[in-house]
Amino acid sequence: MKLGFIIILLAISIVPAFSQSLVSIDVDTTKFAPGEIVELKGTVDASLAGQPIAIELTDSKGNVILIRTVTADANGNFILKFKVPMSVELGDLDIVTNVELEGQSFSETTEVEVTESEPQSIPESTSEPTSDPVCGAGTILKDGMCVVDAVTSTPAEKSSKGGGCLIATATYGSELAPEVQKLRELRDNSLLGTESGTKFMGMFNDVYYSFSPYIADYERENPVFKEVVKLAITPLLSSLSIMEYADSESKVLGIGIGVIVLNIGMYFVAPAIVIVGIKRKL
To answer: Does pTM surpass 0.70?
Structure first.
């Protein structure tokens, strides 16, 4: 009896130590500021090289501000760079890293502090005076006047207002699913990086969030409907991968229009042609 009790105690003490040795994370700073570019570096056990690693950031009010999936290289190292959203709450920020090994989930939590951005001091100019005004952060010089830079000041705010991919999350069962992460990264890295993409996401969100909660709830209640939705959106997700190559305003417009036309063809034109062909044979 005593031997069994000792074995249980050893197992309890070994598991936490083992989980902590599987993954570790290091941040280049202990304090974050809204709008700051942050780099996270981490290492995992050699047995997890090439495996996906889920990273989740939660602010002081429990709001999830970032979910990303990275893959460790052959040496077990991984790096993630991201921009701290302007809407993040000040206070403690939890960085949770999750990995899976043989069906068990192990995590490492690192806590940092979110503080207000320090005001930038403008150095004294030694050059000859100019008639053009000096524009501060978040503004650009246009026609001799300082105006708000919509391209750089809007994406972080829009990203936070966009919410989650409700239908995809319900379809694939988790916000950490690769398909859901792909949609988030496409939105944050491609669309919200341009003015036209930001405007499109604003209009899209108004329509999408008017019906998506009902579809997501019904998916959770009806497994058959969930599989039908998964079958229906798979071609859409595949076509959206083309948008990863849109890294400029013109490419977002050109590739975006192409993707829209492609999906209209897949979901409407092709079925219509098939239906007409069947009716003619009948």
So the answer is: no
Domain ranges in the chain with CATH number 2.60.40.1930? 2-114
Contacts of 252 (CB under 8 A, 6+ apart): 190, 191, 194, 196, 197, 243, 246
Give the 3-state secondary structure of residue 139: strand
**Contact present, 34 and 84 (Cβ < 8 Å):** yes
* Homologous superfamily of domain range 2-114: Macroglobulin (MG2) domain (2.60.40.1930)
List, in order, residues 6 or more apart from 254 with CB less than 8 Å away.
246
Per-residue pLDDT of the chain (282 residues; tens, 9 = 90+): 555 544 444 444 444 444 445 777 777 677 888 888 888 888 887 777 777 888 888 888 888 777 778 887 888 888 888 788 777 788 888 888 877 777 677 778 888 888 886 655 555 545 454 445 444 444 556 665 554 444 443 433 333 344 567 888 888 888 778 888 888 888 877 787 788 888 888 888 888 888 888 898 888 889 999 999 999 998 888 888 888 777 778 888 888 888 888 889 888 888 888 888 888 887
Nearest to 49 by CA among 87, 25, 78: 78
